[in-house]
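TL;DR need structure tokens for one chain.
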Amino acid sequence: MNSTVIYIGKDEQLTAYFTRILEGVLSEPVLFMNSCEQAKQWLYLHPEEKFTIILCERNSFESDICDLKDKKRNFPYLYIILITKDLTPDERSLYLSNGINDVLSPTVNSETLRWFFHFIKKYKPKQRNSREVRPFPINSYKIPFLKRCFDIIFSSVALILLLPIMIVIALAIRIESKGPVLYASKRAGSNYCIFDFWKFRSMYINSDQKLKEIKNRNQYSSNDTEFGYNGHIHERKDVNISEINDDFFLVGDDCVISEKEFILKSHKEKENSFVKIEKDPRITKVGCFIRKYSLDELPQLFNVLKGDMSIVGNRPLPLYEAELLTHDNDIERFIAAAGLTGLWQVEKRGIGGKLSAYERKQLDIYYARNYSVWFDLKIIFRTFTAFIQKEDV
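>> reply
TL;DR here they are.
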């Protein structure tokens, strides 16, 4: 497929250099323009050009980002190459996230440029055609009609009956510590749909920011040595690559790690995807009480009434946990309703909280595969027998 190539820039020496090497690399003529606005006008006048390559000299960051967003919004099939050198990792990331497809050095030679254009022209049309193909419909989970009717009736009656208790809890939380009475966090429910998950606040404010400090208390965590991972990550500025003994290693913007260590580290993070802290110091006194009797969960009845959740299902997960459960062996847990209570709570809740991440995922998957109305009723009945937590988590 033939393509139009546009060069945008005002640097005379740089323009002359690219004029010379582009003439030797490309069979079609190159359009040289002084500004992005001029290029934009040309693109509007030639709507038949569905594949255009733009080479643009770097200007100020603010003007570049503004021009990039405008081009990508109006001409989504452009392939934009930034001509620059000495980009920092943060700058490179920002340029790429705002529409730049690639970066070229101002001193690139003709051989490299020839290979570069060969790759773009071979790959880009295929990419564009694949986007034009209508995506294959994917079946998503939908709460069954009878289950949804039960959720509406149960949550409505429960909210009416429990309203006085909820008012008392709200007053106690407000008296003990500053901050909002209710706490909303983003959770991933069925089909990975994200929603605001409501609870009574049981922790001091800004507790999320302190999670990294106490993550070593996570009851689902495993020792690094259990996976053979020894934490050998080298700061890039302090390491000589030639001195690394490993046959294969990965080089990042700020670190160097052997391929084996990286695989083991990734495996460890996926296995420890759930977070539950024993004797969490972030919890208030009122929070300890309402957590012990599961009263902090009462506002989730509004989530149930709204349809974000069901009374029975798999626990909706914080986003940092859900993003680690995208493997084929884990994803099936999301093909079920997000629930106020569920199978893993009634199976293990009263046994000191000692539940491995693997066991919990298997219980979630079992529920997704074996849902029935009678199974839900059985879990609800068992929930009342496991109502009081014995663990301090």
